[in-house]
Amino acid sequence: MRESLCALGNGYFATRGALPECSADEVHYPGTYAAGVYNRLVSEVAGRHVENEDMVNLPNWLPLRFRLPGGPWLTPDTAHVLDHGETLHLSSGLLERRTRYGLGPGRALLVRQHRFVHMADPHLAGLRTDFTAEGFSGALETEAALDGDVTNTGVPRYRDLDGRHLTHVLTGTTAADTVWLRCRTRTSDVRVALAARLTAPAPVTNRHDRPRALQSTRLDLAAGDTVTVDKIVALHTSRDPAISDPLHAAVDRVVRAGGFDELLPPHLTAWDQLWRRAELDVPGEAGRILRLHLFHVLQTLSPHTADLDVGVPARGLHGEAYRGHVFWDELFVLPYLNLHFPEVSRALLHHRHRRLERARTAARDAGRRGAMYPWQSGSDGREEAQQLHLNPRSGRWLPDHSDLQHHVGSAIAYNVWQYCEASGDQEFLHTKGAEMLLNVSRFWADSATFDDRLGRYRIKGVVGPDEYHDAYPDATEPGLDDNAYTNVTAAWVLARTLDVLRGLPEPRRRELAERTGLDARELEKWEEVSRTLHVPLHHGVISQFEGYGELAELDWRGYRHRYGDIRRLDRLLEAEGDSVNRYQASKQADVLMLGYLFSPAELRGIFRRLGMNLDERTWRRTVDHYLHRTSHGSTLSGLVHGWVLARARRADAWQFCQEALRADIADIQGGTTGEGIHLGAMAGTLDLVQRGLTGLETRGGALWLDPVPLPELSSYGFTLRYHGHWGVRLRLEHGLLEITVPSSGRSAIEVHLPDRTVRLQPGETDRLALPD
C-alpha cells in the first residue's frame, strides 16, 4: 500500500515508491509504467488458453544498493534498522526517505534520499542519495543499475498468467558515467529505452550483466561527513512523437540534462503551476486526504497526457490491478478535469474517438448497428474483459460476463456532453463528439426491442454497474433485462444526440448524414425510443432490473456476523456454493448512479420525458431500498452514496463521504491499494466537493449552483477554468457564496442560484447569501 501511495509520476510514466535497494518480493514491488504501453500474452488457465493484454512493468531504473566492503548489501529486510521514515511531499512531487542502518556498537550509516519523476520534462527522473557515516570512517561500495529482468507479478491472483512481457534486452555504455538499456515488448513490439547517468565524488565503473547495466563506485566516508550520489534517468518508447529511435532519444536526453540541482527548479515550478490551476481549500483531515487524491490524479493525468493517445487507467499508473485497463472510470474523472484541465479531457475523448471504428466493428460482430464500446480496453479498443476470473476464496476460475456492461457507451457520451458544456468547445461537439454520440445512440436504438404487452421498448441481455448480478437465477444464458441505469442513460443519450444534431450547422449536419446514412426515419425511431424505454418498478421503488423485486432477501445481519467484512459478498456466496444472482444484493450503486449523474431536476425531467413521474417520495424510497441492500464492494460505491445522500438524507451522507475519502489511505477493500490506487474514487471525491456539494452544473452557457453544505464540510473553496476564464474562484462559508472572476478579455459569466441570477464581469467579486 505504501509503495502505491508513494508512487511518483507525471502523466507520461510513474514509478512506485519502492526502496531503491530492495528487489521485488512479497513485501516490495518496484514497478515503472508508461501510459499506453501494453502487451498481449496467452496463458493456459483451467485447461483453457486465455489471452490478456497488460500494462507492462518496464525496466526498473531505481536500483541503487550499498554495503561495507566485503559485507552484505544493506536492506531493511536483512540489516539492523535503527530508524526509518518516508515523507511524500505533495506540493513538490518529491519522495524523501531517511534510514539509519546500525553497523555495530556506536556505528551507523545514515541514508537520505530524494526522488522525483520530472513534471516539467516527462521523460526524466532523478534520485539523490546522501550517505553519512556516524561513528566511523571508511569505504562504502555502491551499485546502481538499470534492470531489465522484470515481470508483471504485482497482483498475486494473476501469477498463474504469463507475465514476462519484455524481450531482446540489450545494455551498453555511452560515456564514462552513462549506461543504457533497451528492450521491446514481446507481441506489441513497443521499443523501450532507458539511459542513466551516475554522478559521484569517485570514479564510476560500468559493467554489463545482462539483462542489467551496472554502475559501481567506492566512496570514502569520513565520520560526520555526507557524500552524495546522483542518478538521472531518461525514458523513451517507440510510441513517443518526434523521435527517430527511443535509444538515441533517451541517451541524448540524459546526456544533455542538467544535474539534480539544475533539474529540481523547473520540476518544482511545474508542480506549483498545477496546484494553482487545481487550487482546493478544504480544512482538516478531509482537506489533507483530498490533496493526496488530487496529487495522484495529476500524476496519472497531467497536461502531458494531452499529447498522448491514452485512456484513463482505473488503477492509475501505480500498479497492475485490472491489468492497467480502461473501464468507465473516466465517468468519475473527466467531470473534475473538465473544469481545470480541459485539454486533458479533450485528449482522453480523442482516445475514445480513435477507437470508434473498433467499437463499430464490435457492434457489427454482435449483430448491432452503431458503436459498442468495450467494458475493458487497453491499447487498441478491443474488448479486454477477461473470460474467466479467479475467486481467491474458493480457488475456482469462473466465467466472467462483465463484457455485457454496455452502459460504458453512455458514460462516454455523457463525458462528451459534459466536456463541451464546461469548456464551450463547439468544434469538438460538432465533429468528433457528434460522431461518438450518433454511434452510441444508434447502438441503443438498435438494441431496443418493442414489447407489445408493455407498449414500451426494452433492452435485454445486459449487466448494470452493480456487477454482482450477471444472470437470472438458474438461467443458462447471462444477461439481465431492462437494467434501470442502462435504460435511463440510454434514453438520455438519445435525447441529447437529437439536440446536438438539431443544433449542428446545416453543412456539417449534411456531411454527417451522408457519412453515416442517417435519415429522418432513423431519427424518428430515436425520438420514440428515447420516450418509451421501459423502467421497471416494484413496491413503489425503481427496480434495478426487471424481476429484481422477485429475488430473495439476503440475511445481511447473519452474513456480517459470520464474515465481518462482506464487501465481496459474491465471492463469499460462491465459495458456499450459492450465487448472489439469487438475492436483492448489490456490489455498488446501480440505480442510485442516476442520482450521481443527474441533478434532481434533470432526473425528474428524464423520467417525465419517459412518461413517468419521479417524485421526491419515490426517489427517497428508492434510495432507502438500495442503501440497505448494498455491500459496497467497490470504492466507487461510498462516493456515489455520499453524493446522493447529501441531497436525499443529509444526516447519513458524511459516513459514506468518509468511506470514499479513506478508500485508499485505509485500504478498505482489504489489500487492493497495494495493487494500484483507485483513480475513479480519488477523482470522484474531488468532484464531490466541486460539483456534488455545490450542486454545480455547467449548462446553457452558464454556471448553475444549488449548494447543500454538510455540517462536517460547510466551509471550502476551489478554483475553476470555465469557458476560457482561468482561475474562477468559488468559496462557500457560513451561508455565503463568494465568486471571483479574474481579469481578462472574456465576456461575463452568468451564475444561476435557486433564487436569483447574477452576471459577473472579469475582475469582479460577488458575495451572495444562500437560501436556508
UniProtKB/TrEMBL annotation:
The keyword Transferase applies. Residues 696-760 form the Glycoside hydrolase family 65 C-terminal domain. The keyword Hydrolase applies. Transmembrane segments: none annotated. Substrate binds at W328, D329, K587, Q588. The active site is at E467 (proton donor). It comes from the Bacteria. One of its GO terms (molecular function) is carbohydrate binding. Pfam families: Glyco_hydro_65C, Glyco_hydro_65m, Glyco_hydro_65N. Residues 291-686 form the Glycoside hydrolase family 65 central catalytic domain. Belongs to the glycosyl hydrolase 65 family. This is Trehalose 6-phosphate phosphorylase. The lineage of its organism: Bacteria, Bacillati, Actinomycetota, Actinomycetes, Kitasatosporales.
